[in-house]
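Researcher: Structure prediction, please.
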Amino acid sequence: MQRKRLWLAGLVIGYLLVTGVSAAGLAKPSRNNVLGNESIFQLVTVRKSNDAEQLIRFNRRTGVTSYLKGNQWQLIKENDRRVRNSLYQVLATAETGGGWHLYRLDMISGDSWSVKNLVWHSIKSDGHLKETETKE
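Model: Predicted structure follows.
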């Protein structure tokens, strides 16, 4: 009888390990699992007013963004804090003068940024860019 119970307990534990069943509600959801099977990197193309296209690449988990210039990826620098392993969305718009604007949104926290002089700057809740402090 004891041997039968041990065998049955071993069978149940083996089933749980094989199927990956876990106790629901005990673990916090991981930010790493937000994307599921979607691609981590995304490319965005902007058609500028002079009919040239600008290619922008960003990592949806880290928010790291770069643009293609002369067959090389140029990094857009960070001015403010960003959260690693979040979920970022980037939107690019064309400018009438031939340039482009880039906006980034943290889909989890709601923080947003805009590119100015090839540097990401936080956008305040009133829609204005946060001014950087200059040290003299």
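Model: Residues 21-29 have pLDDT under 50 and may be disordered.
Researcher: Thanks, that helps.
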